[in-house]
Design a protein that fits this description.
- The strands form two sheets. The protein has a five-stranded parallel sheet, with helices on both faces. A three-stranded antiparallel sheet has the order 6-5-7.
- The relative contact order is 0.20.
- It is built from nine helices and eight strands.
- Helices cover about 45% and strands about 15% of the residues.
- The structure holds adenosine monophosphate.
- Adenosine monophosphate (AMP) binds near residues 57, 64, 90 and 163.
- The site of adenosine monophosphate has 17 residues, from α2 and α3.
Length: about 220
C-alpha cells in the first residue's frame, strides 16, 4: 500500500509523516531526507544535489527517480512517500514502477496552507540533522539550547536547514506552484484517491484529519 504526502514546503509533511509512521505500520520514504543524507556524506549525488537544494530548485529527475523506485519494495510493501513526485514526469515514473510491482496508490494526502503561513513556519523552523525531526524556534538564539529528543546519537546537531532562508523559501514555493501543484490535477484525472487536507490547524488536529484517510 502506498500513501503519498503532497504539499508545499512548510505544509508539515515531515511532521505528519513521523506521526503516521508512529501510529501505523509504514516504511517512510522521503526524498528530501535521502538527499540531505547524501549531502551530509558528501557523496557524488550529494555534491550534485546540494546546489539545487540550496537554491530551492528541484534536483534533476535523472538523479531522483532511480533513488526512489529502488526503495518501493514488492507487492505487500507499505510505503509512506513524502516529497515525491514533485512534477508530472516523476508521477509518470512512479506509476510505471507501481504497475510493474502490481502496486497501487491508496491515497494522496494533499496538504494545503496559504503562503503567508508557510513563510512564517519555515522562518522559525530548525531540524535535527541526524533524524530530520523538525523543531519550532521561538527565537533564533533558541537553537543553541535545543537537544533532539529522538536521536539516540548524542552528537546530533539541531540546525536551520540551508534552504530555509527567505530567498530559497520563495523559490521553493514558486517551484511548488509551477511544477508540483499540477500533479494534483494529474492524479484527479487518473481517478486516484486524492484528498485535500486543511493543514492550518495544530499538529494533532491535522493528524486526526489525516488518520481518517489511512486505511489499515
Ligand atoms: P524537502 O525536504 O522535501 O522539502 O526537499 C528539500 C529539497 O530536496 C527540495 O527543495 C529539492 O531541492 C530536493 N528534492 C526533494 N525531493 C525531490 C524530488 N522528488 N525531486 C527533485 N528534487 C527533490
Amino acid at each position: 500500500m502506498n500513501v503519498i504526502l503532497l504539499g508545499p514546503p512548510g505544509a508539515g509533511k515531515g511532521t505528519q509523516a513521523r506521526k503516521i509512521v508512529d501510529e501505523f505500520d509504514f516504511d517512510y520514504i522521503s526524498t528530501g531526507d535521502m538527499l540531505r543524507k547524501e549531502v551530509e556524506s558528501a557523496s557524488r549525488l550529494g555534491k550534485i544535489a546540494k546546489s539545487y537544494m540550496n537554491k530551492g530548485d528541484l534536483v534533476p529527475d535523472s538523479h531522483i527517480v532511480e533513488m526512489i523506485v529502488d526503495n518501493l519494495g514488492e507487492l505487500n510493501a507499505r510505503n509512506l512517500i513524502d516529497g515525491f513526485p514533485r512534477n508530472i514526469s516523476q508521477a509518470e515514473a512512479l506509476n510505471e514502477k507501481l504497475t510493474e510491482n502490481q502496486q497501487k496508490i491508496a491515497v494522496v494526502l494533499h496538504m494545503n496552507v496559504d503562503d503567508e503561513e508557510l513563510i512564517n513556519r519555515l522562518s522559525t523552523r530548525a531540524v535535527c540533522i541526524s533524524c530530520q525531526a523538525p523543531y519550532k524556534l521561538k527565537s533564533p538564539d533558541e537553537i543553541l539550547n535545543i537537544n533532539c529528543n529522538n536521536s539516540p546519537n548524542k552528537d546530533c546537531i539541531i540546525k536551520v536547514r540551508d534552504d530555509d532562508n527567505p530567498k530559497s523559501v520563495a523559490r521553493r514555493i514558486t517551484v511548488y506552484k509551477n511544477e508540483t501543484f499540477p500533479v494534483v490535477k494529474y492524479y484527479k484525472d487518473l481517478n486516484v484517491n486524492l484528498v485535500d487536507i486543511d493543514a492550518r490547524g495544530t499538529e494533532d488536529e491535522i493528524f486526526q484529519e489525516i488518520s481518517k484517510f489511512i486505511v489499515v
